[in-house]
């Protein structure tokens, strides 16, 4: 399988399992977390890392089984993603805390590096649950981590130095606080996204349009020049009924505009078509900037046309052009 084909299959899997960006982040973090744990606990059970101890091996087996079980439950759609993330994080943190307590009690010769590694593991779990933006979960993870840290720091005179305990405590608490702010930010973004989706759906419903039709219409409306590709793209997104209605509406509106222009041309027979068009927009109350945007011309060009109109009407500098045209 080529790299591109593999990337396509992964993208397809993530898309089929998620509905928004937040769920995609959670899924990617969850899968990466499971893979990391499986690799780490397998390495410990094979004796390549960690301390060789039956109790610690038992902890690793439990977590290895838990990760496979979690993945199976998720892939078989028996448990949703958030529940899987929370349950696995709680169990992993509980086991990590038990590891710290157990190591503090048996006090092996290399207890300090082992405790530091396990506390780093606890901190990683907190980061994992923080990145997943799961409400309330960081609180319980933080509590379990601090309890085991306190035990390691003060049991039987302390297995960890006070400086390490203070440093790890501060890092854990700050990360928990960060998770709270992150969660609030995500909630705010979700609310804004909900309002946006409701507004968009309401707009589409009101005009009986699809999302693709609205995008095509917006592109056409914002186009400053006559681009056949954009026009063709616009009508390609329309069904025959919508196309017929649009063309009919444009014809009616063009007839109205032409009628207004004819009236102006009769009043000002010496005006050019461009001057007649600018007069129409001035009567409607459009500013020079508005007229430039509507006609796709520069403001200096519109200003020049306005100057010619004023000259032909014989207006003085302090005379109002719109008032004169509306007489």
UniProtKB/TrEMBL annotation:
Source domain of life: Bacteria
Membrane keyword on record: yes
Protein name: HTH luxR-type domain-containing protein
Record field: transmembrane: 27-43, 55-75, 82-105, 111-130, 137-155, 161-181
InterPro entries recorded: Sig_transdc_resp-reg_C-effctor, Tscrpt_reg_LuxR_C, WH-like_DNA-bd_sf
Domain HTH luxR-type: 264-327
Keyword line: Membrane, Transmembrane, Transmembrane helix
Alphabetical list of SMART domains matching this protein: HTH_LUXR (SM00421)
Pfam families assigned: GerE
CDD domains reported for this sequence: LuxR_C_like
Source organism of this protein record: Segatella bryantii (Prevotella bryantii)
Stretch forming the signal peptide: none
